[in-house]
Write a structure and sequence with these properties.
CATH topology of the largest domain: TIM Barrel
Distance between the termini: 27 Å
Radius of gyration: 21 Å
Largest sheet: 8 strands, parallel, barrel
Helix content: 25-40%
CATH superfamily of the largest domain: Aldolase class I
Shape: elongated
Order of helices and strands: EHEEHEEEEHEHEEHEHEHEHHEH
Strand order of the largest sheet: 7-8-9-10-11-12-13-14
Number of domains: 2
Strand content: 15-25%
CATH class of the largest domain: Alpha Beta
Number of helices: 10
Number of strands: 14
CATH architecture of the largest domain: Alpha-Beta Barrel
Bound molecules: phosphoenolpyruvate, manganese (II) ion
Structural class: alpha/beta
């Protein structure tokens, strides 16, 4: 349920109202927007008398929210959420690009890619230290050593780092990581989401291989219900009958999520297509459709990459993609 307050509502009366609602066992999510202040009520609202609320001097209107996601719902928080890490921002008109190798392989590889993507305009460095691979015989990542290398690359370039956690037992290694990624395969690892909800750092939540947008938002809700409101959503393609691409990029997720939620939406055209040649067109399309950012895999030597070389751009291809994306941004749908 949401309670929209009148613009001139007195602070004292609003405090009284909030106290009364909390007394009914409800959690209140207050959102002071540019045009109005909204109280989002989370919990069992069945005992709330809507007519009595409506009658209060400070209340403009009261609405029941049908959707099961509350904190993530745009009705609770009409303004876009902006996620800031140092100088980098994503959301609310700030376009942020996360780029780097699929996996961290060595100091030389990571630092050279980091310098190149920074030069081309990326605002975050990505790199997998813990890799979810389909085959147990494939490269599994440098694990703790990979995180150390990411921190070194951050020191060299100043780029904040984004890397994936696969299990809560790894969490102690993520203390200095700027943005923790939850991969597609872990989107519904609810115990992990709850724990990440207790942190004070942004979480990049990737859409599950066969998850609906509502399920994605319910996973975001797990994180937000714990108090952590800093969630970035990532559309990375879904599993369909098509085999020409690794996944099917659901571009319509961008305008659909835009209506459903205030959280920033990032698109990963690398995992969505699985082919380097398709990354640029899909990056342009995502930017034009109103995405708040991109996540793109870049490797200094894609032919010899230990993971996902076929979908990785060279630094030159990445720089060209950035130019093309920047050219469409002024015309993007918002
Ligand atoms: C990744 O970004 O490294 C990754 C494994 O992606 P996804 O979880 O979307 O498959
Ligand atoms: Mn990858």
């Amino acid at each position: 349920m949401i309670v929209v307050l009148k613009q001139n509502a007195s602070e004292l009366k609003v405090e009284e109202l909030m106290k009364r609602l909390r007394g009914m066992g409800l959690d209140i999510h207050q959102s002071r927007g540019t045009h109005s202040t909204i109280l989002g009520l989370v919990g069992d609202t069945s005992a709330v008398d809507i007519d009595a609320l409506h009658a209060l001097e400070v209340v403009e209107t009261v609405k029941r929210i049908q959707e099961p996601y509350k904190n993530a719902n745009r009705k609770f928080h009409p303004d876009d959420t902006v996620i800031s890490v140092g100088d980098a921002k994503i959301g609310g008109g700030h376009f942020g690009v996360i780029a780097g190798p699929c996996s961290v392989e060595s100091r030389e590889q990571l630092c050279s890619v980091a310098a190149d993507v920074k030069k081309a305009g990326a605002s975050f460095l990505r790199g997998g230290a813990f890799k979810p691979r389909t085959s147990p015989y494939a490269f599994q990542g440098l694990r703790g050593e990979g995180i150390k290398l990411l921190l070194e690359a951050k020191k060299e370039t100043g780029l904040p780092i984004v890397t994936e956690i696969m299990d809560l037992s790894q969490l102690f290694l993520f203390e200095d990581v700027d943005v923790i990624q939850v991969g597609a395969r872990n989107m519904q690892n609810f115990e992990m989401l709850k724990e990440l909800g207790r942190l004070h750092k942004p979480i990049l939540l990737k859409r599950g291989l066969s998850s609906t947008l509502q399920e994605l938002l319910m996973s975001a809700e797990y994180i937000m219900a714990g108090g952590n409101q800093q969630v970035i959503l990532c559309e990375r393609g879904i599993r369909t009958f098509e085999t020409a691409t690794r996944n099917t990029l659901d571009l319509s997720a961008i305008p659909a999520l835009r209506q459903m939620t205030h959280l920033p939406i990032v698109v990963d055209p690398s995992h969505a297509t699985g082919h380097a040649s398709m990354v640029k067109p899909m990056a342009i399309a995502a930017a034009a459709a109103g995405a708040d950012g991109l996540m793109i895999e870049v490797h200094n030597d894609p032919a010899h990459a230990l993971c996902d070389g076929q979908q990785s751009l060279t630094p030159e291809q990445f720089a060209e993609t950035m130019q093309a994306v920047n050219a469409v941004l002024p015309f993007a749908c918002r």
